[in-house]
Amino acid sequence: MRVLLSGSTGLIGGELLWRLKAEGHHVTRLVRSPAPFPEPVVVWDYRNGPFDPAELSPIDAVIHLAGENISAGRWTAARRERIRSSRVVSTRLLAEAIARAPQPPAVFIVASAVGYYGDRGDELLSENSAPGTDFLAQVVQDWEAAAKPAAEAGVRVVHTRFGVVLSPRGGALAKMLPLFRAGVGGRLGSGNQFMSWVALEDATAAIVLALTTDTLRGPVNVVAPNPVTNREFTKALGAALGRPTFFAVPRFALRLAYGEMADATLLSSTRACPEKLVSSGFVFRHPALETVLKVLG
Question: 192 — alpha (psi -120 to 50), left (phi > 0) or beta?
Fold first, then answer.
């Protein structure tokens, strides 16, 4: 397939680019500024206006992974706006271009997040569960709704609701490793909040499945089948590294340091299950947390 891919320099996008090329797909990078990539590129910055539908010929699939990092720091008014617009506006403009294209792609895969569900305690959440009400949940709802023009034009749209993507090469796990290796890692708050996670290898394999499976559409929870609490994750990571995990970061300290972002990401409890992936026959390479962490010791 001929694939247009945004976010190709990110953790998921970089791994996905390699996987797509290894499986024989032809990838064009969608980038905000020109750069010397070995693959062909289309340059577009959503802040500068609409996407040209002519750039979609000939493209069979669009995978849109780009977006402002939600965990980079406090959610100031300016950062909240960047978090929202980088997802909602860019997705809407791409969806509108897809709808206007003379030969639209067959599938539009848009990154999403289990933040859709908000803080839900130990409730088991499928793709049919109701959304949350906090800022992040509202952003994700609007993000997914922004793809509606493409769906109305008959394009198959898939929203990959990612959990925490685990890889020692980047993301949340890479940020934790120095602390845990130094023996000062510990649980966050009570540690009872559920964490829906997925190995990077499984996250990209799920995108490829969505790319090539005509029956997959709408929201798809891209999470491992065994979510864990933060306490369980902390214990497993410490055991994998052979380090103690006696420390704990109090809830008030996290809120003092990160404000609203702490409640929505570090302390929020989301216990999502991959119902659609499993029913589609997806086989996880890393269904249990220990199989991801064992390579770290």
Answer: alpha
Q: What are phi and psi of 247, to 5 degrees?
A: -75, 160
Burial 239-276 (b: 16+ CB within 10 A, else e): ebbebebeebbeeeebbeebeebbbbbbbbbbbbbbbb
Domain positions in the chain are: 2-166+197-223+273-278
Structural class in CATH, domain 2-166+197-223+273-278: alpha beta
Segment 199-250, tens digit of pLDDT = 999 999 999 999 999 999 999 999 999 999 999 999 999 999 999 999 999 9
| Model pLDDT for residues 24-35, shown as the tens digit of each residue | 999 999 999 988
